[in-house]
Design goal:
The protein has 2 domains: about 120 residues, Rhodanese-like domain (Oxidized Rhodanese, domain 1, 3-Layer(aba) Sandwich); about 130 residues, Rhodanese-like domain (Oxidized Rhodanese, domain 1). The strands form 3 sheets. The protein has a 5-stranded parallel beta sheet. The longest helix has 17 residues. It is globular, with a radius of gyration of 18 Å. Helices cover about 35% and strands about 15% of the residues. With about 280 residues, the chain is α/β, with parallel strands linked by helices.
Amino acid sequence: MKEKMLYSPNEVHELISKGAAVLFDIRDAEDYKAGHLPGAVNVPDIFYYLSETTPAGLDALHQKFQDIFSKAGLSSDKTAIVYEDCLDTRYGGSCRGYWLLSYLGHPNSGILDGGLKAWLDENLPVENEELIPEPAEFSLNPQSHLMVTKDEMLKAIQTPGIVLLDNRDKVEWVGESSSPYGVDFAPRKGRIPGAKWIEWYDFMDRSLAIPAFKSTQEIQSICAAQGIYPDDDIIIYCFKGARASNTYVALKKAGFKKLRIYFGSWNEWSRDPQLPIEEGIPN
């Protein structure tokens, strides 16, 4: 049975009515205050936090989010639901939250399918009061099989049979921009050697009123055109792990079996001048 990742608005509403969920709104504070799901906690750091994958960097990541999720009242018996306005409004940030919770070892995590827009489309209630949750103990149990570190990525580029998937926007892939935060936000432009490229938007049907992931067949066909298949060992990276997490969910939903994320992504890789990059227009 496939792991449940996407929850419909009505499924989330039912979890709320049972007191069985902790909801994480990853939007900025002013958007949260204008209206959010009942009982949701505002945690924009789920979207913004820039991680390093050195031992010290991972320790900092673990400590920060163990503290955040504990203060939010997330215990092992609650389902964590992450949402944004739509699945493509924060570069897949709600998927980043889902992946992060999965990596940190929370047993039940999911994404509000369609985000706040889908919730409102079902005429479900919102509120604007800021919740002060009752703290709980968030159990930290990192799942190392989901995470690729900088050192592991360096080994991977020299290991036949591992597929590296860059899913950044085209301007980043061709080396015209270093990041979504600005052309020169990161010190180097380019890509990790040997990576294949599929822009993250390609896995989504954005012609719909509420953007959604494409079908399994469509996603598998898009990947096959780049020589990527469901049984491959795949490492996904972007700039900071949000778009990579969106693609992680898309591929997992489509039956891809071995998926990992280099969470430090280009933000970390580009800042180490010892690490190799490819520059310019790809051949």
